[in-house]
Structure formats: C-alpha cells, structure tokens
Write the structure tokens for this entry.
Amino acid sequence: MILLVLFTLVVAYAVNFLYKKWRVYRLLLDNFKTPPRHPIFGTLTIFPKTAPEIFKTFLSLFGKYGKNFVLTRPILDAQIIISDAKDVEAILTNPNTKNARKAAGYRILEPWLGTGLLTSYGEKWFTRRKIITPSFHFNILDDFVNVMSKQSDILMKHLKSMAGKGEVDIYPIVNAFALDVISETAMGVTVNAQADPNSEYVTSVKKMSRAVQERLHHPLGKTGLYNLTSKGKYQKTLTTILHNFTDKIIGERRDQLLSNTKIDKGSHMNFLDILLHASVGGKPLTNADIREEVDTFMFEGHDTTASGMAFTLYLLSRHADVQEKLYQELKKVFGSKDEMEITNKKLIGLEYLEMVIKESLRILPPVPGIGRQLMEDTLIGGTTVPAGVNLLLSIYAMQHDPDYYPNPEKFDPERFRSQSDNKRTFAYIPFSAGGRNCIGQKFALLDLKTLIAKVIMNFKLLPGPEVILQGDLILKASNGIRIRFEQR
Ligand code: HEM
C-alpha cells in the first residue's frame, strides 16, 4: 500500500513537472522563431560535430531566424538566444542585480571555482562584490602595471628568440604571460608559467581549461552523472591539484599575517591580502571562501585576457596600416623601445591604442556569449518569459550585426573615435554590462595595453593563416593564432 502511494506521488510529481515544462516550451515556440526540430533531440541535430563547425552553424542562425530565437534540447528544454540590444539592455540593467543568476551551463565551473563571484548570485554575490571592488582601485592598478611591465619584458626576450623564424602560435605564449600576471597580482606569487611552462600547477590550469570546454559539449556535462565518467574523474584530479596549490598559498599568507609579519607595503597589496583582511558580519572570510575567489580570478583573469591579446596581435598583423599608425603613436609617447617606461598614466593617454583594442574586442570578443537564468518573469521581444528559462546573450552576434555596425567584418578602429552613438551601447558589451559586468575590466585593459605596446614597439607583425574560430566559454582558434614577427 505504502509503495502504491509512493508510486502515485512520484508519478503525479513527474506529470506536474513535465506539464509545467511543456507549457513554457510551447509558449517559447509560439512566440519565437526556431530552427527545424527533431522530436526527441530538438534542435541539437542541426549542429555538426566539431567545435568550429558548431560555432559557424550557430552564427548562421542569426541570419535565418532574426536577432532572438529559440534552441531546444531533449526533455522539453528550451533556451532563448538573444542578440537584440534592447532586450540585452533590459536583462542586464534589471535593478534586481543580486538576482542575476547565471545559466545552468555555468555549473560545470563549480567543481573548480565553487560559487565565487562569477558563479554565485543573491546575497553571497552582493557581499563578495562589495568586498572585492576596492581591489581595482586606481592606486592598486598603478602597482599592478609594474607587474605587467616586468612580465612583458620576459615575454619580449622570448619573442626575440622567435623573430624572423616563421609562423608562431601566439596564443600559448600570451596565455603564459597572462597567467603570470594574474598569479602575481591575485595571489602575490609568480607561478612562472613563462619560465617553467611544465610545472604541475601551470599544466593543470591549462588542462582544466580544456576539460571545462570538453564538459560543455558532453551530453552528461551539466549533470552530476558526469562525475562518474572517466572525464569527470580526470576533472576531479585536476581540481584537487589546483585547490591544494591555492590552499597552500592562502594558508601561508594567513599565517604570515597572524604571526604579525608585516606585509611589505612597498610591494603591491594583492587580491588575496584584501580578502584576508575582509570580514562579513564581523567574521573573517574562511580559507574556503577565499579560495573560491582566488580561483575565480585565476580562471576568469587569464584565458579571457590571453584571447584578447592574441586576437589583437593577429588583427594588427593583418592590417599593416593600423599597425603603423599605432607604432607612430607609441613612439611619440615612449620614445625608443629601450627606454620604454610603462605607467598607468601613459597608458591612459594612448588614444589610438585604446581604439585598436576596443575594435579588436568587438570583432573577436574573448567572451562570445553569457548565460542567464531568469529569476522573475521578464518581457523579451514583446513576450513575457517566465522565471526559470535559460537565456544566452550573444555578444559575438550583436557585435557583428550590420544594424549596429555597418560592414561588421571590417577591422576599423576609427569606429571608436566617437563615443556619441548611443544606439550601440548595449550592442557592444565585451565585458558585459550592468551590475554583473566584468569586475576586472580596467585591469584587463591595462594588461592588454602593456603587452600590445611592448610588442609593437619591439616587433613588426606579419600575417599568418586565417583563424578558424571556435566559440565556447572563451573565443579561441582551432588552428592556433599564427603570426610572424620581425624585430624592429
Ligand atoms: C579581455 C579580458 C576580459 C574579458 C573580455 C572579460 C569579460 C567578462 C564578461 C563578459 C563577464 C560577464 C560574465 C557573465 O555574465 O557570465 C565577466 C565577468 C567577470 N570577470 Fe571578466 N573579462 C576579462 C578579464 C577579466 C580579468 C582580468 C579578471 C580578474 C582580474 C576578470 C574577472 C571577472 C569576474 C570575477 C567576473 C564576474 C563578475 C560578477 O559577476 O560580479 N575578468 N568578464
């Protein structure tokens, strides 16, 4: 009898669950365009197998189905893809920012990042954001520029050894640079990715970035069942290595503070120090709390920036006129390459460099799209979409939409000479926008400017093959980002 009652309850729950899902599913399909659907697999079947082909097919859908459309997956799962800047604005500027919950896909980052700033929401996100925001104060960024400049000198030596010797895939090289900069600024230690690319931590970060991308495409990727697969177990092993490393750094730094060893104020205050000094409701953050944030910075602060750096150099290598104009601006500010002293103030004065970077981040945005799960009913394209629905805001599609950017495939930094065109504001969001925008935006721009300025003052860039793009969490090139260097 008890079994019968239990069985009936389970069936009733399942029917109710599916009925509610079906109603949302129907609402979305009745109000948004959608590509042809397979009865079980939904629109998954229109996508080819490889990551570059998936990205190409995805982008072609905007031409066929308009700025917003729906994609479906098994079990009545529907997601709205959005590239109408008006709708993006309404979603990102919702005054209830605390409730900006990330889409279900972000949960694949949680084994490594926990629920740090990127993945959390509600009160936890709000409190952490308040604590972390001062880490990006102008004065602190000033100190960080010294780290960026020092690390870029190491990179120059590395590039010199490669100049004039044919094509180089620039992505892993600038990735190591970005990792060194973020580790020194976030944790106060150098992981020496440039000098020692084979250390356990450095290789584990790289493997983890790849493992996360793979998980994104795995049918069980977003479920707990993934942890039982061999790939899931591999991700767990990497997580343990990465956590052990961060735990050790945090533990040592806390002990140093407790034993009253004075933090050397002559050196920069890093994010870790700020977190160790912070408290919530009078209680200090635990080591586990701090680890979430340090790991989040290590992930979000290096792959993104490396993608931006590598693609900017790639675009410059293919546009000799822009490169020359930039070189002339840099020469005026820095004099000769041997006397280059990089400061925050000098970088801010480089107007054309800023335009070049902005246009690069438009044409090849490191984060091609961001996901949200609606926490309240929201009007999208004239339809009230119920809470719970997952959205993908396509940064790439908006920034390539001819309605917002005439001749969108043309690399033209002059687009950013005038900032007066308000129509475009939310069509250009490489760092997202609103309350949950990128907290590291200023940091990333300084990092990009330092590296690009140093490279262009020292080298002439020449083109290699065209990139084949793949756009998962981070925009990358499946054939590498290959260019040639000649020493100036
Ligand atoms: C060119 C480089 C970068 C780009 C294009 C970029 C882009 C973005 C974007 C689009 C978001 C929104 C993500 C979402 O809503 O899901 C974001 C969030 C975030 N970024 Fe960046 N980012 C860059 C560099 C950095 C750096 C250097 C750091 C750290 C130093 C950083 C830390 C973060 C964090 C912690 C968040 C979450 C913020 C929150 O939700 O409150 N990013 N970034």
User: Anything to note?
Assistant: The mean pLDDT is 91. The longest helix spans residues 2-31.
